[in-house]
Amino acid sequence: MNSIQINNEVNLTYPDGFDLMGEEELIRYFRTPADRWGVYNAEKHIILSVNWKKAGFKHLFTDAESYMIEVEAFLHRNLLNYQRVTDYKMKIGKKKAYAIRFEYRVKDAALVQVCDLVAFKYKKHFYSVYYVTRKVNASANLPAFQEVLNSITLK
Fold first, then answer.
1. Is the separation of the CB atoms in 95 and 120 below 8 Å?
2. How many H-runs (helices) and E-runs (strands) does the chain carry?
3. Beta bridge partners of 79
4. How far apart are CA 59 and CA 37, in angstroms?
């Protein structure tokens, strides 16, 4: 297992076999490397990424639930064949977290991806944890995401 501290506030562990995503990969998959950390496992076709956004007056959202609504609206507008599969609530530390699982099609391919996205607010930031894998591998790969979520501690 590997450990990382993100934005000096969020600690998590992730399984061996993942490589750190560089700026180029972060741009390719998420459009920007700003305020984002990510790793990928090429063999298992998994991406794990965390981004953070400062909460404040210029944003319309005030809690993790309203933030998730905004993020999902963005995903719906920008991903090909976006379809929500389910949503659920959980705790990250003692903070309420809101999560969705959705599917989308990769541009220029018939490949369908599944993503679990968990959002929570801690101190002055909103955090989004993304776990992306191919749909055909999802049932085998998603238990590892639960381990990542269970490992999160807040500083």
1. yes
2. 3, 10
3. none
4. 22
Q: Note the pLDDT of residue 60.
A: 65
Its pTM stands at 0.91
Cα separation values, 51 from 42, 43, 64, 135, Å? 21, 23, 14, 23
Does 44 have pLDDT greater than 70? yes
By the 8 A CB rule, do 82 and 102 touch? Answer: yes
Structure tokens at 125: 């930031």
Give first-to-last CA distance, the chain, whole Å.
20
The backbone torsions φ and ψ at residue 150, rounded to the nearest 5 degrees and listed phi first, read: -65, -25
Q: Single out the residue of 83, 74, 84, 62 nearest to residue 31, CA to CA.
A: 74
Phi/psi-derived region of residue 45, left when phi > 0, alpha when psi is between -120 and 50, beta in every other case: left
Express each pLDDT in 100-114 by its tens digit: 999 998 776 778 999
